Amino acid sequence: MITQADKGKTIVVIKSEDYAKKVHQFLTANNFKTKDPTNKYQKLIKKNYATMSPDHRQVKDKMHNPEKTITTSTQSTAKTT
Hints:
Elements lengths: L1 E3 L6 E3 L2 H14 L8 H14 L2 H11 L17
Antiparallel strand pairs: 1-2
């Protein structure tokens, strides 16, 4: 395998098996997280959404459901003739 070195502008020739071992050693030594963070962030979003005022929630609902009509106390009903 021919690849660029980690440091400098040099090229390295290394056996594929050796490269795979080095990558594996690097990943295990540096404690890369493998857990999917999706559930953590979904819980955080739901918690923040629950603490929002109803007016803010209506705006969010309107953004995600454009057909949904929002009525608030500040809207007036205008009649056209």
